[in-house]
From TrEMBL:
Protein name as catalogued: Phosphotriesterase-related protein
Domain of life the protein comes from: Bacteria
Pfam families noted in UniProt: PTE
Organism: Kibdelosporangium banguiense
UniProtKB keywords: Hydrolase, Metal-binding
Lineage start: Bacteria, Bacillati, Actinomycetota, Actinomycetes, Pseudonocardiales
Hydrolase as UniProt keyword: yes
Family: Belongs to the metallo-dependent hydrolases superfamily. Phosphotriesterase family.
Stretches assigned to coiled coil: none
Transmembrane segments: none
Length: 297
């Protein structure tokens, strides 16, 4: 069985993915982010078209269950723009949900994730998104990661992890890989630029996981200048085949954020100048194709 990448429009071969924004949001809604909701189909389409104009071919959409993913909107966006969209199942931190929502699904999380990964229902997901807490894993994180591991073993789907402030990466690896036996090559750790510690990043890379760094965002004040130091350290340490880059803009371009196009118009040229064209090809094309490709059952 050959590996494919599951997009909202169907499965594609890894070589069809193209230049990939490995972590972003087209639709998003949370009580913790008032005024920052992404709910405009037109704004998302404009952002995607700009991304495509710079050569972008795919976006991994990390908005999980219950946060306004807009499955129908994702389908329409991919059809209208030609950009591949990988949708997420999974669950974010507890405070992003009303207690009644969590109470209604906590006893069936694994089945919920599996259903969205394997059936042609309202959403065709291609990854599982879960989240840690700041410098630790709380009970909610452990519960959702355990469900994600069960869903992984049923589907082989990759698990993408929101690291709060870029922290608790080793704790996540200890739980998912150590206790729950998920292969490290099936795990993507996100937001590592928010904790710009090259030594810690090397430790994570040596465990075998993928490392996702995020571009600029008014919402989370990502630090581009330190991110390049971290990327350089990883490449020099021989881990260029584990690095991913995403926009994670979280605020619509229409509201003042740089938008997805910035990832390719500004960040990609600088990476090429500092790290060379081979590193650019790995970070934007080769690594995402491996990270999101799965031998689906």
């Amino acid at each position: 069985m050959s590996a494919t990448i599951r997009t909202v429009l169907g499965d594609i071969r890894p070589q069809e993915l193209g230049v990939c924004n490995a972590h972003d949001h087209l639709f998003l809604r949370s009580p913790m982010l008032p005024g920052q909701q992404l709910d405009s189909l037109e704004a998302a389409a404009a952002d995607l078209r700009t991304f495509a104009q710079y050569g972008g071919g795919a976006v991994a959409q990390w908005t999980p269950y219950g946060m306004g993913r807009n499955a129908t909107g994702l389908l329409r966006l991919s059809q209208a723009t030609g950009v591949h969209i990988i949708a997420a199942t999974g669950l974010h931190q507890a405070h992003h949900y009303q207690p009644a929502v969590l109470a209604g699904i906590e006893d069936r999380l694994a089945n919920l994730f599996i259903n969205e990964l394997t059936r042609d229902s309202q959403l065709r997901a291609g990854l599982i998104k879960v989240a840690g807490s700041f410098h630790h894993l709380d009970a909610h994180a452990r519960r959702t990661m355990s469900a994600a591991a069960s869903a992984h073993w049923a589907t082989n789907a990759p698990i993408a992890v929101h690291l709060e402030g870029g922290t608790a990466g080793m704790e996540v690896i200890g739980l998912l890989c150590g206790e729950l036996d998920v292969p490290p090559g099936r795990i993507i750790l996100g937001h590592l630029n928010r904790f710009p510690d090259p030594g810690m990043h090397r430790d994570l890379a040596e465990a075998g996981v993928f490392l996702a760094f995020d571009g600029p965002s008014r919402a989370n004040h990502s630090t581009d200048w330190l991110m390049f130091d971290c990327l350089t350290a990883l490449v020099e340490a021989g881990h260029s085949d584990q690095v991913l880059l995403g926009g994670d803009t979280t605020v619509a371009a229409a509201q003042g954020a740089p938008g997805m196009g910035y990832l390719l118009s500004a960040l990609r040229p600088r990476i090429e100048r500092e790290l060379g064209p081979d590193a650019v090809a790995r970070i934007f094309i080769d690594n995402p194709a491996r990270a999101f490709a799965t031998e689906w059952p």
